[in-house]
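Q: Hi! First time doing this. I have a protein sequence and I read that you can turn it into a structure. Is that right? Here it is:
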Amino acid sequence: MRVLTVNPGSSSLKVSLLDADDTVLAEDSAGGHEMAGLVADLPRPDAVGVRFVHGGTDFTAPVRVDEKVTARLRALADLAPLHQPASLHALAEITGVLPDVPAVACFDTAFHAALPAAAATYALPREWCERFGLRRYGFHGLSFSYAVRRAGEMIGADPAALRMVVCHLGAGASLCAVAEGRSVDTTMGFTPLEGLVMASRAGSVDPGIPLWLIEHGLAPAEVGDALERDSGLRGLTGTGDMRRVRERAARHDATALAALDVYHHRLRACAAAMTASLGGLDVLVFTGGIGEHDAAVRLRLAEDLAYLGTSVDPDRNAAADGDTDVTAAGAAVRALVVAAREDLEIATGVRRCLRGDGPPGATG
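A: Yes, that's right. Below is the predicted 3D structure, encoded as structure tokens:
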């Protein structure tokens, strides 16, 4: 089955055409409005897979798209405002261009659907949780699922026998604690706002802060927009691009140096929390744009977690390109860089869904 994977971001998208053996036949990226032009130049696929950040409680596995599914996905848009609308737009574009090709929605939340209740439950009124579906959903699941499998291949071990912390670090960022091959804890929550400091998202803040700001005159929409788009590294430095922040820090810019300290303080604390959920650590995995390309982030986190036995080889870490084992000699914990391949995970989900050999995509 030849699968076209569509991976939308908040302002652009990536498309890849994979053959039956997952060979990439073609790939490209562009703004969502250019979908028709991108697809017109590609061989016709047998199926299409579209990445959706949020599946809520309705979708816990890939699901074939129809009008009912689309309506339920649209209802989740306000829980992931940077990405869900972009995915809905991409879905509409691709089904318009390829109306007779089956389309499957694949979800970042699905990998975390079986989180233990203790990790998924917020200490809020039970009535609210039941009425509104308030729980920790977690995100970046397509990336985590692939990284776990690939990490096992790289070290020749069954992922089910390993305690892993996977760090998906990019413009959006989250960590996942993986035991027996499954997500048992993660840093993002009900929405992608919780957890780490990100490019433009605040990460975890005292919930009293937005309440106080609203009570003192700011509109809820203004607060929400700022938390999503004008916070994180952008709020601290004026730019959400980690490369620009590093360049400024190299020039001893005090604002950039302070922002990096804030970024790493949260990253260290959250990574340590993930290891506590696992009761230890066997493998530390880095993926995502920053995780794959920023050697300084990897080195600093490994040093911060050295009490657990993490250490990276400086030369291999600095030269890492694609899938790379950067573990220092004698380190108790393996440290790996895994190139993000959400396209492979999407294609796998599409084939399982259309063959009918996976779990149902919709629940409830």
